[in-house]
């Protein structure tokens, strides 16, 4: 369906977004396109914006997506536990990708670039 829409609108770009578990799926979609070498779709991919997204993969996935990390934007509220799951401890080692737009309890934004843990 996406391929058909982009064929009809050759100047269009697409953004992937989601909240919570939907954010995790949104973050994985471009990774799957890249893994399957869907170059005809990747060239139209603009960005990923997620809200309260849990961690989605391990260090291997993060390194695979590193060339595209500047297209990932995660909005995180300080008191939301979802972005802390699954844990990044000695057992699970789940990671985030991209830029974190972190809001504290007073809704003051702090931008974290790179491999910010939250």
UniProtKB/TrEMBL annotation:
<dbReference type="GO" id="GO:0004806">
    <property type="term" value="F:triacylglycerol lipase activity"/>
</dbReference>
<keyword id="KW-1133">Transmembrane helix</keyword>
<dbReference type="GO" id="GO:0006629">
    <property type="term" value="P:lipid metabolic process"/>
</dbReference>
<dbReference type="InterPro" id="IPR044819">
    <property type="entry name" value="OBL-like"/>
</dbReference>
<keyword id="KW-0472">Membrane</keyword>
<dbReference type="InterPro" id="IPR002921">
    <property type="entry name" value="Fungal_lipase-type"/>
</dbReference>
<dbReference type="InterPro" id="IPR029058">
    <property type="entry name" value="AB_hydrolase_fold"/>
</dbReference>
<protein>
    <recommendedName>
        <fullName>Fungal lipase-type domain-containing protein</fullName>
    </recommendedName>
</protein>
<feature type="transmembrane region" description="Helical">
    <location>
        <begin position="12"/>
        <end position="35"/>
    </location>
</feature>
<keyword id="KW-0812">Transmembrane</keyword>
<feature type="domain" description="Fungal lipase-type">
    <location>
        <begin position="2"/>
        <end position="88"/>
    </location>
</feature>
<dbReference type="Pfam" id="PF01764">
    <property type="entry name" value="Lipase_3"/>
</dbReference>
């Amino acid at each position: 369906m996406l391929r058909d829409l982009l064929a009809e609108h050759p100047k269009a770009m697409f953004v992937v977004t989601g909240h919570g578990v939907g954010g995790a799926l949104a973050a994985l979609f471009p990774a799957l396109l890249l893994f399957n070498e869907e170059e005809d779709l990747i060239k139209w991919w603009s960005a990923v914006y997620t809200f309260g997204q849990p961690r989605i993969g391990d260090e291997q996935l993060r390194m695979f997506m590193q060339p595209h990390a500047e297209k990932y934007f995660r909005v995180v509220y300080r008191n939301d536990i979802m972005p802390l799951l699954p844990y990044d401890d000695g057992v699970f080692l789940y990671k985030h990708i991209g830029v974190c737009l972190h809001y504290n309890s007073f809704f003051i934004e702090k931008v974290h670039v790179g491999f910010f843990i939250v």
